[in-house]
């Protein structure tokens, strides 16, 4: 017998957890939530500092690769994505950023009614339980814990001093009216522990709500259709191939890579491309997998003898032992660090209306996402381009649902992106060369030889990669021929099928994408409930 629920949600990432959690608040509504990973409720996930164990490897991580990137000298990039309940919010650096109001107003200007900043702000606030800020821009009492770091790292003050020396403004709250400036990030933590989307919306209810069924180790293989109506999902759990049915809707929330992949595997996409893989077309929708956007990111790295940085060294062992004991005792100290403790938003040109780059200042020296290790301690500073012009794709490698998709972010595919990154490099170097930060540097690991603009272009092509914010592959739109969903997030041309994750973003927002994706889940749940009431 096949299980049947009102809603079947595929993917328990930030959007999937939020929409499943909210829909299951109504005891009369049954919700099934499927995810290919595990429960993600152990110390590796809840201890913020343990993110180093996940991002660089395959623990709770799909650890995807890109196809060779023409703009990056043919290099293959790395795309870590969270696997298991909470999705990428279970492995990320926990930075709580919404993006600029202009990002959402732009969505609305494209014809996406209901997605302007004034429309989405209530959903950001509804999600939020902010322990530090209380204003028209913030919420209290929501499921998502947001607060200041508890690492107590004095380097934060050094960073602020450097920002002042470089004559950048200091910003305390990056999620209010304006966010230009540098400062200390807020994080999705509570009591020094990671607060993933699963911890916010799913974990507390798994045993208490009879109407919420959570299936882990359940890898979706295709959406089931009757004509043009989505009626269920086929998934693999262990060696078994199972089916689950949806009375009302299938909600796809598998992320910017796997939502388009599952649509294509199910016969929804460019019919000619699907035919090459022997997939029978259900609905020709050429925008599926198009419009991939991500923030290209460059990292400055330095070795340092300062004892407040993390790294691999024998003399650092006693500090680690003390940190573990402090964390166990009071949930404070180095193990509560998200590493990217500081940062902010800057303009590379004074004539810009809004910031076009973002910095993440890290309390460790990072090389190749932590996959290349260096002995000793140090620090890093990321600089990413917030609204790149380059557009990439997600395509099928085969008709095998267990095989990773072909991911092509097309980093630096547009010359304008490269030149904007050159400007971003220069403004970040200005910060790195302040007396406050120069005093911390023992060795410049990557950029000591960089002098000219051509040197900068070369090092960018050699070292740029993702800062983990892929979006756009099932983009929202109305008259747009490549739009995949409408402003209610319903898939064009099909019934009872919605997409609720970062793939629906028509354009990339200027900031980290976790909080916006949770907002999308909150708003989707509200729209679904309103349609139900209407009848």
TrEMBL record:
Q: What class of enzyme is it?
A: oxidoreductase
Assigned EC number: 1.1.99.-
Q: Does the keyword Flavoprotein apply?
A: yes
The answer, when asked if Lipoprotein is one of the entry's keywords, is: no
Q: Report a single Gene Ontology molecular function.
A: oxidoreductase activity, acting on CH-OH group of donors
Q: Which Pfam families does the entry mention?
A: GMC_oxred_C, GMC_oxred_N
What cofactor does this one take? FAD
According to the entry, every stretch annotated as the Glucose-methanol-choline oxidoreductase N-terminal domain falls at 82-105, 255-269
Q: Which residues cross the membrane?
A: none
Q: Where does FAD bind?
A: 92-95
- Keywords on record: FAD, Flavoprotein, Oxidoreductase
Top-rank taxon: Bacteria
- Sequence similarity: Belongs to the GMC oxidoreductase family.
Name of the featured protein: Alcohol dehydrogenase [acceptor]
What is the native source organism of this protein? Bradyrhizobium ivorense
